[in-house]
Design a protein that fits this description.
It comes from Martelella alba. The protein is of the alpha+beta class and 171 residues long. The protein contains 5 helices and 9 strands; from the N terminus they run E-E-H-H-E-E-E-E-E-E-E-H-H-H. The strands form 2 sheets. Strands 2-3-9-5-6 form a 5-stranded antiparallel sheet, with no helix packed on it. The radius of gyration is 18 Å and the shape is elongated.
Length: 171
Protein backbone atom coordinates (compact mmCIF):
# COMPACT_ATOMS: atom_id res chain seq x y z
CA UNK A 1 0.00 0.00 0.00
CA UNK A 2 1.34 3.40 -1.00
CA UNK A 3 1.09 6.30 1.43
CA UNK A 4 0.95 9.61 -0.38
CA UNK A 5 1.93 12.70 1.56
CA UNK A 6 0.01 15.88 0.81
CA UNK A 7 2.85 18.28 1.19
CA UNK A 8 5.79 18.71 -1.09
CA UNK A 9 4.52 18.33 -4.66
CA UNK A 10 0.89 17.66 -3.62
CA UNK A 11 -0.46 21.08 -2.56
CA UNK A 12 -4.17 21.57 -1.83
CA UNK A 13 -6.26 23.99 -3.86
CA UNK A 14 -9.13 25.94 -2.31
CA UNK A 15 -12.34 25.07 -4.18
CA UNK A 16 -14.93 26.86 -2.05
CA UNK A 17 -13.83 29.62 0.30
CA UNK A 18 -15.55 30.15 3.64
CA UNK A 19 -18.77 32.14 3.39
CA UNK A 20 -18.27 33.73 6.82
CA UNK A 21 -15.53 35.11 9.04
CA UNK A 22 -15.16 33.71 12.57
CA UNK A 23 -15.91 37.19 13.99
CA UNK A 24 -18.48 39.69 12.71
CA UNK A 25 -17.87 43.40 12.38
CA UNK A 26 -20.40 44.08 15.17
CA UNK A 27 -18.66 41.62 17.50
CA UNK A 28 -15.26 43.19 16.82
CA UNK A 29 -16.60 46.71 17.34
CA UNK A 30 -18.16 45.66 20.64
CA UNK A 31 -14.85 44.12 21.71
CA UNK A 32 -13.01 47.33 20.77
CA UNK A 33 -15.62 49.59 22.38
CA UNK A 34 -16.15 51.36 19.03
CA UNK A 35 -19.67 52.75 18.59
CA UNK A 36 -19.20 54.75 15.38
CA UNK A 37 -19.06 53.69 11.72
CA UNK A 38 -16.03 55.70 10.56
CA UNK A 39 -13.61 52.80 11.16
CA UNK A 40 -15.85 49.97 9.91
CA UNK A 41 -13.74 49.39 6.79
CA UNK A 42 -10.53 49.34 8.79
CA UNK A 43 -11.89 46.99 11.43
CA UNK A 44 -13.31 44.68 8.76
CA UNK A 45 -9.90 44.65 7.03
CA UNK A 46 -8.27 43.66 10.33
CA UNK A 47 -10.80 40.83 10.77
CA UNK A 48 -10.02 39.56 7.28
CA UNK A 49 -6.26 39.88 7.86
CA UNK A 50 -6.45 38.03 11.18
CA UNK A 51 -8.51 35.26 9.61
CA UNK A 52 -6.14 34.95 6.64
CA UNK A 53 -3.18 34.85 9.04
CA UNK A 54 -4.73 31.90 10.91
CA UNK A 55 -6.75 29.94 8.35
CA UNK A 56 -6.16 27.32 5.68
CA UNK A 57 -3.09 25.76 4.13
CA UNK A 58 -0.89 28.85 4.46
CA UNK A 59 -2.32 29.99 7.81
CA UNK A 60 -0.33 29.59 11.01
CA UNK A 61 -2.93 27.20 12.45
CA UNK A 62 -2.48 24.81 9.50
CA UNK A 63 -6.18 24.04 9.57
CA UNK A 64 -9.52 25.33 8.32
CA UNK A 65 -11.58 27.48 10.64
CA UNK A 66 -14.93 27.97 8.90
CA UNK A 67 -16.54 25.48 6.47
CA UNK A 68 -14.56 25.27 3.22
CA UNK A 69 -13.82 22.82 0.42
CA UNK A 70 -10.34 21.88 -0.78
CA UNK A 71 -8.94 19.55 -3.43
CA UNK A 72 -5.70 17.69 -3.98
CA UNK A 73 -4.47 15.86 -7.07
CA UNK A 74 -3.36 12.43 -5.88
CA UNK A 75 -0.72 11.15 -8.31
CA UNK A 76 -1.37 7.48 -7.61
CA UNK A 77 -3.74 4.99 -6.00
CA UNK A 78 -3.24 4.21 -2.33
CA UNK A 79 -3.69 5.77 1.06
CA UNK A 80 -3.62 9.55 0.95
CA UNK A 81 -2.81 11.65 3.99
CA UNK A 82 -5.03 14.72 3.84
CA UNK A 83 -3.36 18.06 4.65
CA UNK A 84 -5.85 19.24 7.30
CA UNK A 85 -7.54 17.88 10.40
CA UNK A 86 -11.27 18.33 10.99
CA UNK A 87 -12.37 16.65 7.73
CA UNK A 88 -16.16 16.48 7.48
CA UNK A 89 -16.37 14.58 4.18
CA UNK A 90 -14.12 13.45 1.33
CA UNK A 91 -14.89 12.23 -2.17
CA UNK A 92 -13.27 11.27 -5.44
CA UNK A 93 -15.18 11.51 -8.73
CA UNK A 94 -18.48 11.81 -6.85
CA UNK A 95 -17.84 8.74 -4.69
CA UNK A 96 -17.75 9.30 -0.94
CA UNK A 97 -14.55 8.19 0.75
CA UNK A 98 -14.11 6.95 4.30
CA UNK A 99 -11.89 9.28 6.33
CA UNK A 100 -9.82 7.51 8.97
CA UNK A 101 -7.95 9.37 11.70
CA UNK A 102 -4.38 8.12 12.14
CA UNK A 103 -1.26 9.27 13.93
CA UNK A 104 -0.18 10.83 10.63
CA UNK A 105 -3.45 12.73 10.24
CA UNK A 106 -6.70 11.96 8.43
CA UNK A 107 -6.33 9.52 5.54
CA UNK A 108 -8.47 8.21 2.69
CA UNK A 109 -7.81 5.24 0.44
CA UNK A 110 -8.32 5.73 -3.29
CA UNK A 111 -8.38 3.11 -6.04
CA UNK A 112 -6.93 5.33 -8.76
CA UNK A 113 -5.01 8.54 -9.25
CA UNK A 114 -7.17 11.65 -9.43
CA UNK A 115 -8.61 14.57 -7.55
CA UNK A 116 -9.69 14.12 -3.95
CA UNK A 117 -12.12 16.80 -2.77
CA UNK A 118 -12.76 17.31 0.93
CA UNK A 119 -14.75 19.57 3.22
CA UNK A 120 -13.37 20.72 6.53
CA UNK A 121 -14.33 22.93 9.43
CA UNK A 122 -12.97 23.41 12.92
CA UNK A 123 -15.18 21.97 15.68
CA UNK A 124 -17.41 24.47 17.49
CA UNK A 125 -15.57 23.68 20.73
CA UNK A 126 -12.38 25.19 19.25
CA UNK A 127 -14.04 28.06 17.40
CA UNK A 128 -14.40 30.07 20.61
CA UNK A 129 -10.61 30.05 20.96
CA UNK A 130 -10.24 31.27 17.37
CA UNK A 131 -12.68 34.09 18.10
CA UNK A 132 -10.57 35.11 21.10
CA UNK A 133 -7.43 35.12 18.93
CA UNK A 134 -9.12 37.21 16.23
CA UNK A 135 -10.35 39.68 18.87
CA UNK A 136 -6.81 39.99 20.26
CA UNK A 137 -5.24 40.48 16.82
CA UNK A 138 -7.84 43.01 15.68
CA UNK A 139 -7.50 44.94 18.94
CA UNK A 140 -3.71 44.89 18.75
CA UNK A 141 -3.63 46.09 15.14
CA UNK A 142 -6.37 48.69 15.70
CA UNK A 143 -4.56 50.18 18.69
CA UNK A 144 -1.07 50.01 17.11
CA UNK A 145 -1.60 51.28 13.56
CA UNK A 146 1.51 53.40 13.30
CA UNK A 147 5.01 52.05 12.92
CA UNK A 148 6.49 52.02 16.35
CA UNK A 149 8.51 50.10 18.85
CA UNK A 150 9.44 46.46 18.28
CA UNK A 151 7.07 45.41 21.08
CA UNK A 152 4.16 46.79 19.06
CA UNK A 153 5.15 44.65 16.06
CA UNK A 154 4.94 41.41 18.04
CA UNK A 155 1.69 39.58 18.52
CA UNK A 156 0.22 39.69 22.01
CA UNK A 157 1.65 36.85 24.11
CA UNK A 158 -1.83 35.57 24.95
CA UNK A 159 -2.64 35.32 21.23
CA UNK A 160 0.61 33.42 20.61
CA UNK A 161 -0.26 30.96 23.39
CA UNK A 162 -3.76 30.38 22.04
CA UNK A 163 -2.42 29.96 18.50
CA UNK A 164 0.03 27.34 19.77
CA UNK A 165 -2.82 25.45 21.45
CA UNK A 166 -4.68 25.08 18.11
CA UNK A 167 -1.77 24.75 15.67
CA UNK A 168 -1.83 21.54 13.65
CA UNK A 169 1.51 20.27 12.43
CA UNK A 170 1.72 18.66 9.01
CA UNK A 171 4.33 16.07 8.17
Amino acid sequence: MTILLCNGPVIPTLVTAPADQPVTLDEAKAHLGVDFADDDGLIDAFIQAATAYLDGYRGVLGRCIMFQTWQIAAPDAGTVILPFPDIIAARQDGTNLTVTETGLGPVVTIAAAGNVTFDCQMPQSQLITVKAIVFMLVSHWYNNRAAGQATQARLPMAAECLIASLRWQRL
